[in-house]
Design goal:
This is NELL2-interacting cell ontogeny regulator 1. It holds the Pfam family Neuropep_like. The chain is mainly alpha-helical. It contains two helices and no strands. The longest helix has 42 residues.
Length: 90
């Protein structure tokens, strides 16, 4: 008996959802599409995307270059300190 109550509740919920979807579809007017003349073309979007991607790549390359330079300097300093005896540093 309890399963028939769940079945009725599920059918009622499905009916309410179908009514809500139908009402939402009826609210949209077919003439509200933005005309193609006022929309940017696909090429413009692709160009803007490529510009942003190039800027990100430049930033990443600069950061990697700066980190590499820092690591090389650190390694050179370490190598220099390893070559010198500790008593000559005073």
């Amino acid at each position: 008996m309890a399963s028939s109550g769940y079945l009725q509740a599920a059918v009622l919920l499905l009916a309410v959802q179908l009514l809500c979807v139908g009402a939402a579809a009826a609210d949209q007017e077919p003439g509200t599409v933005i005309p193609a003349e006022s929309r940017p073309c696909v090429d413009c979007h692709a160009f803007e995307f490529m510009q942003r991607a190039l800027q990100d790549l430049k930033k990443t390359a600069f950061n990697l270059d700066a980190r590499t330079e820092t690591l090389v300097l650190r390694a050179e300093r370490r190598a220099l300190c390893d070559c010198m005896p500790t008593n000559s540093l005073r």
